[in-house]
Design a protein that fits this description.
This protein is mainly α. The chain has two domains: 34 residues; 45 residues. It is built from three helices and no strands. The longest helix is centred in the C-terminal third of the chain and has 40 residues. The radius of gyration is 28 Å and the shape is elongated.
C-alpha cells in the first residue's frame, strides 16, 4: 500500500514541477502574450473556419461526382474511346 502512495506522490511532484516550468520554457513567451479573443475576433475565426470546411467539402463532393459520373458522361458524348 505504501508503494502505491509513494508512486502517486512522485507523479504529483513531477506534474507540479512541469507546471512551474511552463512559463519559462520555449513557449513561455507565447503563453505570456496570449490573451482571450474578443467576441468579434472569435466570430470571425469561426466564420472563416466554417467557410474553409465547407469549401473543402464542396471540392471533395465535386471530385466524387466527376469520379462517379464522369466516365459515363464522356463515354456517352465521345463514344467508345478504347478504355
Amino acid at each position: 500500500m505504501a508503494d502505491i502512495v509513494d508512486k502517486s506522490w512522485e507523479v504529483q511532484r513531477r506534474i507540479e514541477e512541469r507546471a512551474k516550468r511552463l512559463g519559462k520554457g520555449r513557449y513561455g513567451r507565447v503563453l505570456k502574450m496570449a490573451r482571450r479573443p474578443t467576441p468579434d475576433e472569435y466570430s470571425k475565426v469561426v466564420l472563416i473556419t466554417g467557410l474553409g470546411i465547407a469549401a473543402i467539402g464542396a471540392l471533395g463532393f465535386v471530385i466524387y461526382l466527376i469520379m462517379r459520373y464522369g466516365p459515363g458522361v464522356f463515354h456517352g458524348i465521345f463514344g467508345f474511346l478504347g478504355l
